[in-house]
């Protein structure tokens, strides 16, 4: 009997020890010294492709964007250095001060990711899937990142030759767009303005002109970001001003078509000229013109800047890029490298695709007739 009681006592003591180890001394923080911020829990940052900082998150009065708070129920030191994290976020927020100061505003949403800095000023969401401006700002950043991913896949550019961070501004007022575009793109515009090169910039006004709904916005981003990243790759030289407008505008049209199924963005063409053109269906237009013997050959586009390109030249520039990008993956950066160093299109085609310009033109013609349809695109 005494032996049995001895066993029982031992079991009981073991159970007590086990209970002491399994249950935290401080239930609210589970001995982590910190608890999740309740105020933020209802306002998550909804992001598909990731982000680094968000001013809405940082604006939380309880946690300063860290999403954790020190436990008030115990003395345990927090698992993470919450003070240092808050200070880092605060430092980032101050890097956006010049924008707020120039615009004389404190209510612009600021987000950034690995490849973009976004200033978002829409008071209502343009996206069906986002119900408020905060979610819409993250959805915008996702769209921007998508363009970056596509450019990397299309171009074959290595990380060392695509190092720029693009600044993107999205405004709901024309006055703000004018003020921002004059300052950061160096071009005063009430609609769309951009700056090419090492630190590219895009500034847009949403809700007016050709930018009225989600589809318009997605198309515009696809087109303009194609320009920005192509101008950023390698030596950050904009090919549209370097006698290779066919690749600059052709690739932008290609990205626009791939994303939205149609082409409606014509850079450096007056509103009147665009109106006169109407809506072209690019595939059938190329087919019809080449059947009529009105093909604009790539050789004839070599040496022209983007602004100098007539609509028909842009149409065929699009088709040459349409033939280069999907059938020859990851050759775009190689083309850009050759063209950036003042070489003619013939040499760029030879280096990047391994064929003469004459053979390229013939191969394009065969491919185009076999691929394009009068009913499509
Ligand atoms: Zn919070
Ligand atoms: Zn957020
Ligand atoms: Zn605690
Ligand atoms: Zn363009």
Quick take:
With 377 residues, this protein is of the alpha/beta class.
Feature tags:
six-stranded mixed sheet; 50% helix; two-stranded antiparallel sheet; alpha/beta; 377 residues; 8 strands; elongated; binds zinc ion; Glutaredoxin; 3 domains
What does this structure look like?
- With 377 residues, the protein is α/β, with parallel strands linked by helices.
- The protein folds into 3 domains: 32-86, no CATH class; 96-236, Glutaredoxin (3-Layer(aba) Sandwich); 237-267 and 278-377.
- The protein has 16 helices and 8 strands.
- It has helices spanning 2-22, 38-41, 55-58, 82-95, 97-103, 133-155, 174-184, 214-232, 245-260, 271-277, 282-291, 298-301, 311-324, 332-340, 345-353, 357-371; strands spanning 34-36, 53-54, 68-70, 109-112, 116-121, 166-171, 192-195, 201-205.
- It has a 6-stranded mixed sheet with strand order 2-4-5-6-8-7, sandwiched between helices. Strands 1-3 form a two-stranded antiparallel sheet.
- A hairpin with a 3-residue loop joins strand 4 and strand 5.
- Helix 9 packs across helix 13.
- The longest helix is centred in the middle third of the chain and has 23 residues, at 133-155.
- Residues 13-19 have low confidence and may be disordered.
- The chain binds zinc ion (4 copies).
CATH architecture label name of the largest domain: 3-Layer(aba) Sandwich
List segments where confidence is low: pLDDT < 50 over at least 5 consecutive residues.
Answer: 13-19
Amount of beta strand: 5-15%
Count of helical segments? Answer: 16
Shape: elongated
Strand line-up in the sheet with most strands: 2-4-5-6-8-7
The CATH class of the largest domain turns out to be Alpha Beta
The description of the largest β-sheet is: 6 strands, mixed
Instruction: Enter the CATH topology name of the largest domain.
Output: Glutaredoxin
Provide the gyration radius in Å.
28 Å
Question: What's the structural domain tally?
Answer: 3
Structural class: alpha/beta
Bound molecules: zinc ion
Helix content: 40-55%
